[in-house]
Amino acid sequence: MAQVALDSEMKRLRQAALRRSLRIELNMTQAKQILHRPRSFSLLPTLFLVGALAAQGLPLFAQDAPQGPIAPPPEHHVTRIGNKPEPEAPPSLPEAEIIKRFSQKEDEYLLTRTHYTYRKTIRIQEFGQDGQPAGEFVVVTEPSRDADGKLYEKVVERPRSTLQHFFLRSEDLEGLQRIPAFPLTTTQLAKYDLKYVGKEKVDEIDCYLFQVKPKIVDRQKAYFDGVVWVDAKYLEVVKTYGKWVTDLGPMRSIKDLPFSLFETYRENVEGKYWFPDYSRSDDTVDLKGLQIPVRIVIKWTDFKPLPVASQAVAPATPSAPAKP
Fold first, then answer.
1. Residue 37 pairs with which residues in a beta bridge?
2. DSSP-derived 3-state class of residue 271
3. Which of 167, 211, 279, 308 is 20 to 30 A from 252, alpha carbon to alpha carbon?
4. For position 34, what pLDDT does the model report?
5. Are 64 and 318 in contact (CB under 8 A)?
6. Calpha distance 202→233 (Å, rounded)
7. pTM
8. Separation between Cα atoms, residue 142 and residue 152, nearest integer Å
9. Rounded to whole angstroms, what are the CA distances from 71 to 39, 202, 238, 277?
10. Closest C-alpha to 142, from 166, 168, 170
């Protein structure tokens, strides 16, 4: 009997040791997966963007304290595909209240930016088979007003081009001027469905992520379809990622080039206003079977308040975007 009891106890100890070994092996495997997991966006806000490069069209765009400035990494290493299976717990503040507050600030920023000047540099690049830039087009503009007080982009540096496969002029980029910098103002909210999908840091700022989809689309106006990152503390949009769509599909803002899906970071100006300061889109052009990777990067720099005399001609409310 003693031998039977001893054998039974030894068997129990071996089974317990085996279970511990399996748990340790499982934990190590999970740890390796976490260590090697790519840093990326959440899965939920990405799923609805997978078909972003499908259709094309050329109609109108519909327009309508803080922490320090976001310092995006050099040239913004863009990562878009995430692997979080579930969103985090919802914020304590009701979603509707968060949306209301950040849209009110969008109104403020939209109006305030008309009282600022800045330099806007647009750089379009094409890449060779070795993945290195093979040519580029660069133009620099500043906001200005004509005799009637209408705002337009004034070219301040002569366009430079070394592109090998495309011919561009500054006029070809006018479609970019019609992209609203602040798509989710209070007057535009009724046209969209917004859904909280999780949390994520943007340059050390804790943010709420909201999926944005237009309730309807038509042919005459384009609407934003994407994700916005909202500062969880101050309830301000600090980043957007998405496209502008009509019933024909994603918009193309530059003729003969496929750019439609833009990732846009914002900068905190004077500790009060979040203005776009970096936007990027990557795509590929098919020229008679030749696949040419292309990229556009837009940078806004040197934000400065306009002199008081210049601000006097600024409109009290922003005008709707002109029809193409």
1. none
2. coil
3. 211
4. 36
5. yes
6. 13
7. 0.69
8. 8
9. 18, 10, 11, 10
10. 170
Tell me the residue ranges of DSSP E strands in 29-90: 60-61
Q: How many CA atoms lie within 13 A of 227 on its CB side?
A: 25
Segment among 9-18, 31-40, 191-200, 244-253 with least mean pLDDT: 31-40
How high does pLDDT run on average in the chain?
77
Beta 221-231 vs 205-214: how paired, if at all?
antiparallel
Beta carbons within 8 Å of 165's beta carbon, 6+ residues apart:
126, 135, 285, 287, 292
Q: Give one DSSP letter per residue of 117-130, joined into a string.
A: EEEEEEEEEEE-TT
Cα distance between residue 197 and residue 310, in whole Å:
42
> Would you give the DSSP letter of residue 172?
G
Residue 18, domain member (yes or no):
no
The answer to the question of residue 301 being in a domain is: yes
| H-helix segments, the chain | 2-35, 43-47, 95-113, 174-177, 308-311
pLDDT in tens, 175-216: 888 888 999 999 999 999 999 999 999 999 999 999 999 999
For the chain, give the longest Cα–Cα distance: 108
**Lookup result for tokens 């001027």:** 177
Count how many domains the chain has.
1
Whole-number pLDDT of residue 22 = 46
Task: Supply angle C-alpha 277, 203, 31, rounded to 5.
Answer: 145
CA distance 289 to 282: 19
115, with CB counted inside 10 A (0-12, 13-18, 19+), is: middle
The answer to whether residues 218 and 136 touch, using CB atoms and an 8 Å cutoff, is: no
In 3-state terms, the chain is what percent helix, strand and coil (to 5)? 25, 35, 40
- 91-144 per-position pLDDT tens digit: 788 999 999 999 999 999 999 999 999 999 999 999 998 999 999 999 999 988
For residue 306, what are the domain limits? 43-311
Decide if 322 is inside a domain. no
Alpha helices, DSSP H only, in 36-179? 43-47, 95-113, 174-177
Angstrom distance (rounded) from CA 63 to CA 241: 17
Do the domain assignments include residue 22? no
